[in-house]
Amino acid sequence: MVIKVFLASSSGSTAIKKKQQDVLGFLEALKIEFAQLDIASNEENRMWMRQNVPGDRKPSNGIPLPPQIFNENDYCGDYDTFFDAKEENAVYEFLGLTPPPGFKKESIPEEEQNGDSDMVEEEEGPGHTAEAKITGGGLQKTAQDEASEEGEESEDQGEEKDKRVISP
Q1: Quick check: 79 and 22 in contact, CB under 8 A?
Q2: What sign does the CA torsion over 80, 86, 90, 93 have?
Q3: What spans are recorded as compositionally biased (Acidic residues) (predicted)?
Q4: 139-144 LR contacts (CB < 8 Å, sep 24+)
């Protein structure tokens, strides 16, 4: 199976160029074989891409913008759906490919799936930068933060502190 990435080699849009490079770079990093099909210099590629993007996935003007991704003749998606799959560590599923041996999809802890997460209130004052470490589902202050907070308490009396909620 060949992954086909339809792109425009002479796009005037920097956003489109960045999206195309993001897709190509990520596929190269994963060592996934793909073919680049230019819609700017090849009318057949442009027509094939436009005809094979499903109607419900086309923008309101009816003309899909590159990059568009296919697995042979099966439509995978555009940049936004590729990006979502990348963020969810599901690129192989998005492309319709079998993950290589040893590939592990990261599991999301159950409490994050349910929307439950540990929340920590951090107090910051002038000249104080809070650091937090993620540790097994929660945030903890570093020893440096606790020591610096103890020294700043006397300085910060009478000043209102910013309170921020940090969520993983």
Answers
A1: yes
A2: positive
A3: 109-124, 146-159
A4: 139/166, 139/168
* 144 within domain boundaries: yes
Distance, in Å, from the CA atom of 78 to the CA atom of 83, rounded to the nearest integer, reads 9
Residue 95 C-beta-side C-alpha neighbours within 13 Å: 21
* Residue 140 forms part of a structural domain: yes
Q: Which one, of 128, 124, 127, lies nearest residue 161 by Cα?
A: 124
Pair (8, 70) in one structural domain = yes
Residues in the chain: 168
- Write the CATH number for 18: 3.40.30.10
| pLDDT, tens only, 54-97 | 999 998 888 999 999 999 999 999 999 999 999 999 999 999 99
Task: Give the pair of three-digit tokens for residue 49.
Answer: 């891409």
Beta sheet of 34-38, edge-to-edge order:
34-38, 3-7, 68-71, 74-78
Same domain, 89 and 120: no
pLDDT of res. 62: 86
- Residue 138 structural domain: 110-166
Cβ atoms within 10 Å, residue 23 = 24
Q: Classify residue 137 by its DSSP letter.
A: T
